[in-house]
């Protein structure tokens, strides 16, 4: 049974990836950001059979020693740790550089010096900015419209540079808008579903016009595994989009969720939820043909199927109780 490492393992995508890795026969060293509450985030909700194959490591990607200790003796490193909230990046941009750029540098350095066979670095579709051509291929210009996206692009460029400079065995995966159970209310789908599940029939949102390519989290986890296990000559040193190739506006998404949850909704615009005018990304839709060609990966869930699973999660009172549905979660 091989051992792999995951940074950001306690988070939304990270916890699903840990489940996926264990299901495929791996032991996982799961880095959880050190905190005084001894909280392991979403890892605490995983089945005991899964956790029996997981070693939880409290640490911080901003600390080189923490990272070296985590990745030593592993066969692959999945680097997901990041600050992700776009609105908070307007308030605290320095913290995004510390985590998303310097943290990535620390992971790359550890992987390089310990000769780890494969590293998967997590990018984001936000690095493209508003689509100039659609669907968006990996050759689309990078246009960072928020401090968050700029920090993620910085990490991407470091990954590229380490492969070119040191032959570091790194792959960049660029998921489009992942959604599903356990997602933070800093994203639109849980914001809509959780408000409805809590009893609201008038929900508050920001701009309803942007379109997104929504990818169910189980399919995102499968994409990570695909690029980590594909032959090196097919993936190393390359960047891959992960998306469905479909898009839906936020407004139409709200209508669909209301239909699936069998409620009549009204939407009230909350100005504090709006991005600065030149920072809003209006259209994102993926061309994932490069990933399909290199790994045979393809999404297994439709938008509706993924939404139904997400709705079921939020309708469970124990899950809903973890969320603050009556405030704007920055």
UniProtKB/TrEMBL annotation:
Keywords: Isomerase. GO terms for molecular function: carboxy-lyase activity; UDP-glucose 4-epimerase activity. Residues 126-152 are annotated as: Disordered. Its EC number is 5.1.3.2. InterPro entries: Arna-like_SDR_e, NAD(P)-bd_dom, NAD(P)-bd_dom_sf. The keyword Isomerase applies. CDD domains: Arna_like_SDR_e. Residues 6-310 form the NAD(P)-binding domain. Residues 126-135 have a biased composition (Polar residues). PANTHER family: DTDP-D-GLUCOSE 4,6-DEHYDRATASE-RELATED. This is UDP-glucose 4-epimerase.
């Amino acid at each position: 049974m091989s051992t792999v490492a995951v940074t950001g393992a306690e988070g939304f995508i990270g916890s699903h990836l840990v489940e996926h890795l264990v299901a495929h026969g791996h032991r996982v060293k799961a880095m959880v950001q050190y905190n005084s509450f001894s909280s392991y985030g979403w890892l605490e909700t995983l089945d005991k059979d899964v956790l029996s194959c997981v070693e939880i490591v409290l640490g911080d990607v901003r600390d080189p020693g923490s990272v070296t200790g985590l990745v030593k003796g592993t066969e692959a490193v999945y680097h997901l740790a990041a600050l992700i909230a776009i609105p908070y990046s307007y308030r605290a941009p320095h913290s995004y550089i510390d985590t998303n750029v310097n943290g990535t540098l620390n992971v790359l350095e550890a992987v390089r010096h310990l000769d780890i066979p494969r590293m998967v670095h997590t990018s984001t579709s936000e690095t493209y900015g508003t689509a100039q051509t659609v669907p968006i291929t990996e050759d689309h210009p990078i246009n960072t419209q928020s401090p968050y996206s700029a920090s993620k692009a910085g990490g991407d460029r470091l990954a590229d540079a380490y492969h070119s400079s040191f032959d570091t065995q790194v792959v960049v995966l660029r998921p489009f808008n992942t959604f599903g159970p356990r997602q933070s209310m800093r994203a639109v789908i849980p914001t809509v579903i959780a408000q409805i599940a809590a009893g609201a029939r008038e929900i508050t949102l920001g701009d309803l016009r942007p379109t997104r390519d929504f990818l169910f989290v189980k399919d995102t986890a499968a994409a990570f595994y695909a690029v980590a296990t594909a032959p090196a000559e097919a993936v190393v040193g390359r960047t891959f989009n992960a998306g469905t190739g479909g898009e839906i506006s936020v407004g139409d998404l709200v209508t669909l969720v209301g239909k699936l949850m069998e409620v009549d909704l009204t939407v009230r615009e909350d100005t504090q939820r709006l991005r600065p005018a030149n920072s809003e990304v209006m259209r994102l839709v993926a061309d994932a043909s490069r990933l399909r060609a290199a790994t045979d990966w393809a999404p297994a869930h439709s938008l509706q199927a993924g939404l139904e699973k997400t709705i079921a999660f939020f309708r469970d009172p124990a899950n809903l109780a973890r969320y603050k549905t009556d405030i704007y979660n920055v």
